[in-house]
Every structure is written in C-alpha cells, then in structure tokens.
Specification:
Distance between the termini: 20 Å
Low-confidence stretches: none
Shape: globular
Helix content: under 10%
Mean pLDDT: 87
CATH topology: Pnp Oxidase, Chain A
Largest sheet: 8 strands, antiparallel
Number of helices: 1
Number of strands: 8
Oligomer: single chain
CATH architecture: Roll
CATH class: Mainly Beta
Structural class: mainly beta
Strand content: over 45%
Number of domains: 1
C-alpha cells in the first residue's frame, strides 16, 4: 500500500458483537489521532550453561486509543460514553478506507470486540473540548482480532 494521509482512515463502532454478524457499524467521524497498540509478552528461558536469561515471544495484546470531540449531543458520543459507563463491549473496525469496501476495493483493517477502558477529558485553550478514549480487547470475545485485508465483493 502506498503512503496515505491519516484522514483517509476510518473508525467504525457497533454496540453488537461481531460473532453475531454485526451489520450496523457506524463511522465515528468526530475522531482523530487513532493509535493502535500491539505488544508481545515474553517468557524467560534460563539455561544452567549460561549466565544470561533469554526470552521468547508469547502472548500478544492489542488495543487502541483515539481523540474525539466532546459533543454530548452526538449519538456516537452518547453510545460510546454509555458503553464505558456500563462496561458493555462493542465492535470496532479500524480501516484504511471505507468499510465494508466497495466491489474490487481492498482495505487493511483491524476488526474485533473491545471494551472502552479509558475516558480522559481534555479542555485545551483555543480548540474544542475532547475526550481520549482507550479500548482494550474483550476477554469474552468469541473470536481473536482480525487484522488483515479485505476485498469488497
């Protein structure tokens, strides 16, 4: 994929569950600065013949955060805040274009069920009030995150 500006990327949300065939994804158009965080934990490997401790990659974690304009009258804002307050999981898709993709168009995307685990309000001088939303992979998700490409039919 060639270099692309961030404003071409899209973030979608649905309060349903992807395993149940979520079809009502809504684009979150008041967001910016989406950051996907992927990390691998490591397991220690110790050998009697060495003074050094080695490491092997093991379990992975994935989460993401984004900034959103604090518009309490916006339906998406209200839905996300409600999911945070009620500890409800939601389906998210982060894609490098419109999703689902149009026929013959391929998009790279991360698709999974996440909990909203952080809600930080900022009130900067000179710009709109915002919240930074942090999302963590849902432990009760029925399927692992799908981080791949998809081509529209």
């Amino acid at each position: 994929m060639p270099i692309q500006l961030g404003e071409k990327n899209k973030l979608y949300y649905d309060s349903g569950v992807l395993a149940g065939g979520s079809t009502s994804l809504s684009e979150l158009d008041d967001v910016q600065n989406v950051t996907i965080n992927e990390t691998k934990e490591t397991g220690e490997v110790r050998k009697r013949s060495s003074k050094f401790v080695g490491h092997l990659p093991s379990l992975r974690t994935v989460g993401f955060s984004f900034d959103m304009i604090r518009d309490t009258g916006d339906t998406n804002y209200q839905n996300l805040r409600g999911a945070y307050d009620d500890d409800d999981p939601g389906d998210f898709v982060i894609a490098d274009g419109a999703y689902p993709p149009a026929s013959g168009v391929t998009v790279a995307r991360l698709k999974a069920t996440f909990y909203i685990t952080g809600w930080e309000r900022t009130e900067p001088i000179g710009t709109a009030d915002a919240v930074t939303v942090t999302c963590s992979l849902a432990a009760d998700a029925t399927n692992d995150p799908d981080y791949d490409t998809e081509t529209g039919a």
